[in-house]
Amino acid sequence: MSTASTPHLAVATPERVALSLPVAGIGYRCLAWLVDATLLFFFWVVAYFVFTLLVSDVLGVFQGLSGLGQTLLVVGVFATQWLYWTLAEVFFHGQTLGKRALSIRVVRMDGSPVGLFESAVRNLCRAVDFLPGLYAAGCISMLMTPQHRRLGDLLAGTVLVRDERIDLDKYTAAAPGDAGSGAGAAAAGRALSPDEVELVLAFLTRAPGLQPEARRRMGTRLVEKLGRLADEEKARVLASSEATESYLRACVRAER
Amino acid sequence: MAAPLPAFVAQHRADWDALEALLARQRNGTLSLQELRTLDTLYRRAASDLAHAQTFYAGTDAHRFLNQLCARAYGAIYQPPRERWASLRAFFRRDFPRTLRRELRYVGASGALFILGLLLGALVVLWEPRGAELLVPSGVRQYVAQGRMWTDDILSVAPPDTVSSGIATNNLTVTILTFALGLFYGLGTVFVLVNNGVQIGAITALCAREGMVGGLLDFIAAHGPVELSIIVIAGGAGLMVGQALVDPGELPRGQALAQRGREAVKLVLGCAPFLACIGMVEGYVSPGDLFPTWAKAALGLSLGGLFWAYLLRAGRAEADATEVPAASAS
To answer: Is the pLDDT of residue B43 over 80?
Structure first.
């Protein structure tokens, strides 16, 4: 749960607050690339059929245009190799469609969004990162640099960071149907540390999906860890997993 | 004494949600001035909440949430200036030629490497004809053995604009590779430059032995000067990148690389439109007998002259005008 051990990008803002953003690893990057590559592939399948329709030219209308069409085709190959990535990153806040699907984005090393130059550099270097095939050079570079950057990122001074979806509701929302039960006695005792709050909330979120036996065992251990209860009251709380969880929930809610 | 975590979240949640909503709308660009002020205030509040969370709730989800929220707001507020048409024009009028003049040493070194390869290839083939078997691609050798120019056939199979765009993408690939291979400590760039030089030199020498050099020059004359210049310039950019890696000076390698990379890519991007234009010339003018040789040569020489005159002259007067007060002020 600590952000310090995983690779991250540290940024100092002018407000004198240190941000630390989680860096996207090689798996995220590969998946995002696969999404983009698939999209471009389907684009080309469609373009190919439209193009052959124009060239085969059933109606004879496009005869004069086919030369122009071929020019566009070859220019288009280049555009998908390079322009798509650059323009998407510049205009969609550092995200191509694949990066958006995986919610990762390109930022500069100081955390600000990429500009035209940085994006152009890192995408020009795709050619080298692809050598000798299947992004081998890029992958080696990603594995060897602490922030998982490929050669193009090193040259452009950029890094990919992850957008996490974090649900704050778990801190404030109460579970339905246990507003009154067991809450009264629990409020007494010492305050919980933030770590303990996190632990209890994480357990409560996951409890409905656990095996009954594991659910009961973990609930018991949490109650013992909090260690607030006298013996006979503890026995009552541990009688069923519902009672255990409503007691734990009451403990957390009492913190507000 | 810090408040318990759920209390902290409950107390500030409304501000954070408001900031998130504003950020989502800021991305679409539909904020009024008043809302922008609110955004600023909320960002500062969130930043101080983040500092609080760092101290008292480090490593919790609330901390990570604030981290991310502040990063998004920070990105929205401290955006880089937008590149607009005016800055694009300024780039081609001043920035690009000025960068090239400043880094002329690298372009010179790159040109020297290319010419070195050219001489090597030509000398080897002139001295020992069998060297051609090693240095000249077999397809080209077959054409030369039959006494024909391989360039004649490009035109007869495909319409000219296909040739033109095909050549343009090929040139772009060579240019990009010449630049980007500089990432391998400059060795890749050196290899591409020398290799291209050797090939072109060997082909020229082979044609000269077979008495076909006139045909080759006829093909190369119109586009050669500018195209080779562009590849040499891209090579110079690649060497800059390599130099930053080999000798980063007082900076860490990563920073030196990023700094030099910005300068180097200016050279490559500046060349792009010229490369596209010269691809047209190569596709339409160079092959075939539509134009006499002297016209091609005149076109090639004047295009090359114009290109280098632009590179060496553009923005120079303004540069002098702006540099004088700067020098006197310091």
So the answer is: yes
Give whole-number Cα distances, B111 to A236, B104, B189, in Å.
87, 10, 12
- Would you list the DSSP string of B90-145? HIIIIIHHHHHHHTHHHHHHHHHHHHHHHHHHHHHHHH-TTHHHHHS-HHHHHHHH
Dist CA B246 CA B260 (whole Å):
12
Phi, psi of B260 (to 5 degrees): -70, -35
Number of Cα atoms under 13 Å in the Cβ half of residue A183: 13
Share of chain B above pLDDT 90, in %: 20
Interface test with A, best of B25, B74, B85, B88 (most A CBs within 10 A): B74
Residue A188 CA to residue A251 CA, distance in Å, equals 9
pLDDT tens column, A108-157: 888 888 888 888 888 888 888 887 778 888 899 999 888 899 988 988 88
Per-chain mean pLDDT for chain A:
79
**CA–CA separation, A83 and A89 (whole Å):** 10
Task: Quote ipTM for the complex.
Answer: 0.74
Measured distance CA(B186)–CA(B240) in Å, rounded:
8
Q: How far apart are CA A50 and CA A47, in angstroms?
A: 5
In A44-145, at which residue ranges do the beta strands (DSSP E only) sit? 104-108
What three-state secondary structure class fits A162? strand
Q: Which of residues 33-62 of A touch B (CB under 8 A)?
A: none
Candidates B27, B61, B165; nearest CB to A166: B61
- What count of CB pairs under 8 Å joins A to B? 182
Give the confidence band of A174 by pLDDT, cuts at 50, 70, 90: low
For residues B267 and B123, what is the distance between their CA atoms, to the nearest angstrom? Answer: 32
